[in-house]
TrEMBL record:
Keywords assigned by UniProt, alphabetized: Signal
Protein name stated in the entry: Uncharacterized protein
Annotated Low complexity bias: 34-43
Signal peptide: 1-35
Domain of life of the native organism: Bacteria
Region (Disordered): 34-57
């Protein structure tokens, strides 16, 4: 009779021991005594000095620069008239796509479109615009 009684209540004892252990761990985690003392707020660090344009010619050097400089870096080798590709400090990349032409090729580089009108050889033309129009 005693053996049947012990077998019947053994799962209840195990369950109550588990509940007590979980409750003890929860209380220990959230008790004020276990928390580290609050430190005084450190003064905000000044923003980094401007290190020039955040541009690199290829994806690998842009990834390294973004990680080191902790800022977004443009991959100029992937630049087009209507897109810009950036590498973020966390290693992801972002493609900014524009609905129209944002820049045009001039020589070996790019120039932002500037529709300001200027006189050129007796004609009125935009400063920088696509020649396809």
């Amino acid at each position: 009779m005693v053996a049947a009684f012990v077998r019947r209540f053994r799962p209840l004892r195990v369950l109550s021991a588990l509940v007590a252990a979980v409750l003890a761990m929860t209380l220990a985690e959230f008790s004020p005594a276990s928390r580290a003392p609050a430190r005084a707020a450190s003064p905000a660090s000044p923003p980094p000095a401007d290190a020039g344009p955040a541009e690199r010619p290829d994806m690998v050097s842009a990834q390294v620069a973004a990680w080191v400089e902790k800022r977004r870096v443009e991959v100029t080798g992937l630049r087009t008239e209507s897109t810009s590709t950036f590498v973020n400090p966390d290693g992801t990349s972002t493609l900014d796509a524009y609905s129209g032409i944002r820049r045009v090729r001039q020589g070996d580089g790019w120039a932002d479109v500037d529709t300001t009108l200027v006189v050129d050889g007796g004609r009125v033309v935009p400063k920088v615009a696509s020649r396809s129009g």
